[in-house]
Amino acid sequence: MSQKPFPIPVVPAASTEPPPQVDAETSSCASGEPYALMVLGDSMLPEFNEGEIIVIEPEGVARDGSYVIAFVNEEYIFRQLIQHAEGWMLKPLNPVYPNIPIDGLDVVKGVIILKKQPGKRSEQKAYA
Q: Cα separations (Å) of 2 from 5, 116?
């Protein structure tokens, strides 16, 4: 089954700015369609290396263990969503960084569905 390729806007992951609003007249992507970010920093090592491309599904279902983009403390961050006895938290995979407790899932702005090494077609991994 082949699908027609479509453009995915790429924006830096470490930003206090929301993902750019795309003009509907100049883009074939709707606001609820997947978009791509480049991983910056080492907070999600060893699973995600700096420079890798992650694809985010804005309307994806966030579950315990999902990798997500969240808006916390006035910035967008990339973390793993973890449910624990007291509620939810955003967990970096690198233990050098602290866990971030969250009040609810409304801070989650998208779920990572794919990662890819830039320039290497065969090196990609899908997430459910």
A: 9, 19
Indicate the burial class of 113 (C-beta count within 10 angstroms; 0-12, 13-18, 19 or more): middle
Summarised one tens digit per residue, pLDDT across range 59-96 is 999 999 999 999 999 999 999 999 999 999 999 999 99
In this prediction the pTM is 0.76
Parse the chain into domains and list their residue ranges. 10-126
CB proximity list for 24: less than 8 A, separation 6 or greater:
30
User: Which CATH code is given to the segment(s) 10-126?
Assistant: 2.10.109.10
Tell me which residues of the chain have a pLDDT lower than 70.
Answer: 1-30
Query: How many angstroms separate the CA atoms of 108 and 96, rounded?
Result: 22
